[in-house]
Design a protein that fits this description.
This protein has about 150 residues and is of the alpha+beta class. The protein contains 4 helices and 5 strands.
Amino acid sequence: MIFAKEPFRDMEAELAELAPDHWEEVGRPDIPLDINWGLLHILEDAGALHVLTARDDGELVGYVIHVAAPATHYNIIQACDDGHYLKPEYRKGWAGMRMIRAAEEMLRDLGVKTISYHQKTRPDIDKGAVFERLGYELTERIYRKVL
């Protein structure tokens, strides 16, 4: 598997094919998948959208997408994940951890000081142990209400 930073527009058609599988696994049945491609283009044009791809023989098998921007309360650049996914058949050994580490290097090279990942609360898709092993700590809980 090869990890690389790629422009969003270069991989967006492949992402459109892979995203439904990602959504099927982690999405919410009360909110349908409806990717805002225009906003992602705006973020990329502003230099705020950063994509790390995972490829096997050229095929997109995973991705980590971050939005990185100056923090409002600190004088740093922070990155928040917009999504991370690795096809199930590639989740063997250290592949997922290697992908997250590669994303960290990409963001470090951009001057990012803090990285946040969203963690679903469903036990069947809990990746907390992976993030903790990589040195991340649980710092906040997010409460959501669908209106």
